[in-house]
Amino acid sequence: MIYNNPFNHMTPFFPSEQDGEIQELAVQVIQNSAKLSGNIHEISQKGIIKHLRIINSYYSNRIEGNFTHPIDIERAINNDYSKEPEKRELQVESKIHVDVQEIINEILGKDERDICSIDFITLIHKLFYERLPQDLRYVYEKEKNEKIEVIPGQLRQREVKVGNHIPPTHSSLNKFLNRFRDIYCINNLHGTKKIIGAASSHHRLLWIHPFLDGNGRIARLYTDTYMNSVIEGYGLWTISRGFARNRDSYMRNLESADLNRKGNFDGRGCLSQKGLNDFCIFFLETCLDQIEFMGSLFEFDDFIDRLEGYVFLRHKKMIPGKTPLKKEAFYLLKEAYLCGEFNRGEADRLTGLSKRTARNVLKQLIDDKLLQSNTPKGPVHFNIPVHAANYLFPDLFPSLPKQKLVIVKGH
Fold this sequence. Notes:
Blueprint: H1 6-9, H2 20-38, H3 42-63, H4 70-77, H5 85-110, H6 118-129, E1 138-141, E2 146-149, H7 173-184, H8 193-208, H9 215-230, H10 239-245, H11 247-258, H12 273-297, H13 300-315, H14 329-339, E3 341-342, H15 347-351, H16 355-367, E4 371-373, E5 380-382, H17 386-392
Antiparallel strand pairs: 1-2, 3-5, 4-5
Helix pairs in contact: 2-12, 3-5, 3-10, 4-5, 6-9, 7-8, 8-9, 8-12, 10-12, 11-12, 13-14
């Protein structure tokens, strides 16, 4: 089927309102995410969200077949690249994903943008692809034995087929994307319709397939931006982790929502109502699963125990490659996490150490990026470097060898 009419061919735009399960799931996502956010100090959230951008990059790229470990992504952020060309290329892709997340955040922090507009969606693509090395900006078309350059921010200029799905013609993309914007613009939606709009628009953007390459990554970056705008606490959990861990279900549900309407009991649109309903249920259940997982990691007593256990392991020289920490370092990390930040001059009071020793412990924590500061002498706040993440947040991402958590109470 050739899709040229966005008013008919992209319908239905939302799951059926009669589906009470979807409404109930949407309410749970909103409430549970807000509860998770309320349990963590606002300043501490910033350090956690910064770390989770690396994790988000890891899982989003994993969906595309790039398995660059978060430790290697962090190395790339610090301009420490592998000497192996293939591994270096994957590091570059993953680092760019992190960079683009931060740039989008900065842009939205300065002025309001319509994130469903053609301008913003093409901006995401432009930000990603203009940072790629020139030799990574090509796709290969087997049938024509042709190498095609992907122009950053440019809508595709040819017809494509994605599995069994034939997206709209390239000449109709502007019409479809303008209709997409009219339907899913956040300002036009209210209540649970906003998060349901995030789910629906995630599929419909992939269905339109606006770019020659990178549609999956761009759709997930778009959805992260959308979710950040409508869900309190988003960023403390990310949906890409859930998609990657259930990749087969993710792809299967996307394909199901691509299908044309099946008979009189499958809605009144051109596409399958059941397919879209099922995808939205999968999307929202994935949200709940990730919120629950991250919530379990932030259970107060358990997290503080893991924080103390990490310092104990460092103190006992049980973490390879890391210098020992004084056990009193735990009190500084705990204070920063619970209170958001503390003044450097309080280090001796918090640890019970002499001023000089406390300053040295504080410096070591800053050097190890367990604490950070916005200015050289300003207050310090909690941070999560990747090298500590698997001890503090077990199962957040795959461990490297010998990275296992030991909880040590009473030390």
